[in-house]
Amino acid sequence: MASHRKPRTSVLASPGGRRTAAGLTTAALASVTLLSQSADAAPRAPKPTIEEVKKKVDDLYHQAELATEKYNGAKERADAQRHTVDGLLNAAAKRAEQMNRSRHQLGMFASAQYRTGGMNPTAQLMLAKDPQQFFDRSHLMERLTGRQKQAVTDYQEQAAAAAQQRVKATDSLEQLQKSQASLKESKRSVQDKLTEARQLLSRLTAQEKARLAALERQKEAAAKRKAEEEARRQQERERQRQQDGGGSTGGQTGGGTGSSTGDSSSTKAEQALAFARAQIGKPYVWGATGPSSYDCSGLTQAAWKAAGVTLPRTTWDQVKVGQRVATKDLQPGDLVFFFDDISHVGMYIGGGKMIHAPHPGASVREESIYYMPIYGSVRPG
Q1: With bands split at pLDDT 50, 70 and 90, how would you rate the model's confidence at 28?
Q2: What's the whole-model pTM score?
Q3: Torsion angles phi and psi, residue 351, rounded to 5
Q4: Which of 9, 169, 335, 381 has its C-alpha lying 20 to 30 A from 371's C-alpha?
Q5: Which residue has the higher pLDDT, 347 or 239?
Q6: Mean pLDDT of 315-332
Q7: What's the alpha-carbon Rg for the chain, to the nearest Å?
């Protein structure tokens, strides 16, 4: 029997159902959109404070200066190795020339023998595929004349010397390539650090830059006050020594046995200081040794060179030259080194101050030695 049940109407099929479904779909899409936006809008890192920016920039300059000293060392090694290679190549060329003369002398003996008939040992030597095998046949050497023996000996010695020169030149070329690779790596590191620092500074507003400059002035003022305090203490110590009858130490280095040594060292220090003062205002450029720009160790090296004293190129080597002195015993001309990694150096001028090439974007200037953490000091000369 046929069923007369009325088919149920789907909620989705009814107009109301369609509106309800549409509403649910819209709500679902909205929820998905909101979730997507929430996921995309992840919490952003808070903008760094000016103090944090200053610390980061100072750290980058420090790292750049450290990389600069590595660059200076690599460049010095590369220059020295290049000089060595040039010398070895010149020596190898001279050895080859001497060997050719010896070979020519042997050829003349062989030609003379050929013209008179027969094949003497000299000719056999020239035509042999393995000259060493020939040399091992001592009985043939006995048949050579005195001049011929000497010619063979000369050729053998020159050939061996030329081979040694070639080996040395090859080794030196390999060392040069390593030095050049290190030089390239250090240069890239310096440039990367400086680029990052410039980018940080370029994102600051005018107001933020003013605030940054104010922080820098505060740091400089604090370092200046400390230098002035130390200068007063030093004057007090000097007055006390004079009252106790110890007299003034003058310009003596502490290691001399007479006044002439002290006077000589003092004169050299004055000459070095005069040179350094003349460079004030010239820009810091990493890797530069003058005369128009300097980095920190380039300035101290050039200053003492003007006084007739040769210093190494890097801070790490300069700190090893001369007499170590305590901060309280510093005298004008002494070198003051900074940071645990010894990546910066300045020249002491007295009163707790120094002349130095600070960092990129700055010029050679006078500044308190307490602006940076002191590692130690030396007295060249």
Answers
A1: very low
A2: 0.65
A3: 65, 25
A4: 381
A5: 347
A6: 95
A7: 39
